[in-house]
Amino acid sequence: MKLTRQQQKYGHKALIFAGAALASVICLFPFYYALITSLRSGGSLFQVAYLPGTPHWGNYLTALMDNGIARSLLNSIVVATLTVGICLLVSITAAFALARISFRGRKYLLFTILCVSMFPQVAVLSGMFELVRFMGLYDSLGALVLSYTTFSLPFTVWVLTTFMKSIPAELEEAAIVDGANTWTIITRIFAPIMGPSLVTTGLLAFIGAWNEFMFALTFVISSGKRTVPVAIGMLQGASQFELPWGTIMAASVIVTLPIIVLVLIFQRRIVSGLTNGAVKG
Predict the structure, then answer these.
(1) Which of 13, 53, 60, 154 is a plausible cystine mate for 116, CB 3.0–4.6 Å?
(2) C-alpha dihedral sign at 246, 250, 251, 256
């Protein structure tokens, strides 16, 4: 039996929707299971159940009040926000120089920036540790801001340079004719046009700083200065043989919510930023 063109069209749509539904379930199920686990207590934590029961909010109170997750959450917000601000400020000026100014070795510099962004953290951990100690930043949030900025800058510079190359040169020339200086061109002309691109790169840098674990574990030892990933990794039960799964799951949900909120708020700009520069008109 030969299917009509309309039936084939509906069949293709059904396959697409089925694939999208399967991908959504695979991506969302871990967070869903962590959420319902965080609302359990006692022996019910170790029972396999896929539907939520009677909610138990004590795990959230324990995570925030008794284990210092609230303080660590504030530390993560400060570190990630400072990292994003410094990265965007430096990256947009560097992108302007790399995209608009012709100089010898520009291509090699861009290639070097791309190579640096591929370095694994463990390869530079000892060097970063010596730099942090030399600058007197050990066991402070400044050490994390410095290390996160160092690792995020190559990526943000590369991405913003690609976006800035897609902006017509006539806008810059018109601004120069009107007497605008370089800083005015960057802040008043390029920055508004590159808004979606800035949001996209800034959010990716924020997520990287928010989730980072190795540098945060190495450069900070005081419990009051830990970021959220390390604080969750340090959670302990009433004894050395107990692992507080309910508290860990509650802390994981608390940590994930800010990222979800940011993505939902800026989702339109993120999509626009990802496609910006794809078509050069």
Answers:
(1) 154
(2) positive
Model-wide pTM > 0.70: yes
Radius of gyration of the chain (CA): 24
Q: How far apart are CA 263 and CA 243, in angstroms?
A: 32
What is the C-alpha separation between 224 and 144, in angstroms, rounded?
14
Q: How far apart are CA 78 and CA 100, in angstroms?
A: 33
| Interatomic CA distance for residues 205 and 199, integer angstroms | 10
Angle in degrees, 0-180, between the axes of helices 69-100 and 141-165, rounded to the nearest 10: 40
Sign of CA dihedral 131, 137, 142, 144: positive
Query: What values do phi and psi take at 194, rounded to 5?
Result: -90, 15
Residue of 65, 76, 80 whose CA lies nearest to 226: 76
* 158-174 residue pLDDT tens: 888 888 888 888 888 88
pLDDT digits (tens, 9 = 90+) for 92-150: 888 888 888 887 888 888 888 878 777 788 888 888 889 999 998 998 999 999 999 98
